[in-house]
Amino acid sequence: MTSALRQPAAPAFVGAFAVWIATWLIAGHGFVGTLTGGIAVGTFLVIVGVGQMFVITSGNGGIDLSVPYVMTLSAYLASQAMGGQDSRLIAGLAVAAAVGIGAGLLSALLIELVGIPPLVGTLAVGFLLQSAILVNSGKDSGVPSPALDHFVSAKWGPIPVFGLVGIALVALFTVVLRKTSYGRKVEAVGQSPTASRLAGVDVHRVRATAYVISGLCAALAGMLLAAYAGGPSIGMGTPYLLSSIAAVVLGGSLIVGGRSTVPGVWAAAVLLTLLITLVNVAKISGGMQYIVEGALIILALSFTSAPKRA
Amino acid sequence: MGTRYGAVLRSVGSNPEGTGRTGWSVLKARMVLYGASGLLGVLSGLVLSGQAVSGDAAISQSYVLLTIAAVIVGGASFSGGDVSPGGTVAGALLMGLIAALLQFLEISADYQVGAQGLLLILILTARAGVAYARRRRS
After folding, report:
1. ipTM of the complex
2. Mean pLDDT taken over chain B
């Protein structure tokens, strides 16, 4: 085996490639279109997944269950703020950022200051956001700005611009994670909070920042998804709860924290998106998609935990 | 709770390695626990479909979060090993009663989930505060 195949992200890339080829073989056409489409649509999941990855990597049982609600609330409030006008794009962006940072800060406060376990803390925040969604979705649902709509669906020839944005984000977050002091601290805190604290790292602040990053990513993805879908809807964030966690785990990051790979999240997000295409092309029932997704996560987890037992 | 195997099941939560050392199978105990959870889930599903008259693929989604909330509100510790079946029943009743109370106060059903989330936060914050005060005193 070459060293490239031993990278934690390798299975996700191989899997995405296999699903791409399988879809092409079954459909009989759309060799390029399947991949570019998967990369473009998968970018929403990439953004949410990278945020989730920061939380999971910072350890302490970290997980962000508020992601789908942050997405949906941000989609509604940002669309209402934009009101279908490009001149109010900045207002929409500001609202989305405020929703994401606010939700992330609240989760971080409950988990790091009060000491509530992440599973319950982000769940409680999710409950609060759910009510906020119900209250705010009743009036006009808002219209995303046309410029934003153009941004997520524009193409240069066969290449979707939004897919390139996703790849650029992967490069950016890889640099943040590998080259900045903050990124190194996130992994260090996930590996050993005690050693990190003794080395002078403010463990609570590092973990708290991870929740804020996750909230911000989810909020931006929600706003962009609303622009892509032509408007927000109540259940739009729901599939992203399981998928964002799946993208992190399938990508080769450890579910217990301490090791992460941004390109892995990208490959896994594309894999999961292409999987939906494959299920549709092969005319398998929609429920099968969840079974395949669940089986893939179990497979990925049994591979990553195997070396520990040896 | 009172049976010998119940004590084993709880010890798996608080000290799995110790349980394994005394000769009980941790894997078997975990299987019993997840099996029991699945069985009880099926039973409540039967009752629920009886109430809703027909089966509905999405009817149970809110229960994922509500069951965890009921256990935590009922006084069990999140790290495991410390359980309180009576508290869980009380927690579940409380979660249900909030819905009834909000309805009684003519507050929109939109706020129901939020109220449950807020209650969860308040109870856990209060519990953390009490634990902190106790530690300070001792």
Report:
1. 0.76
2. 82
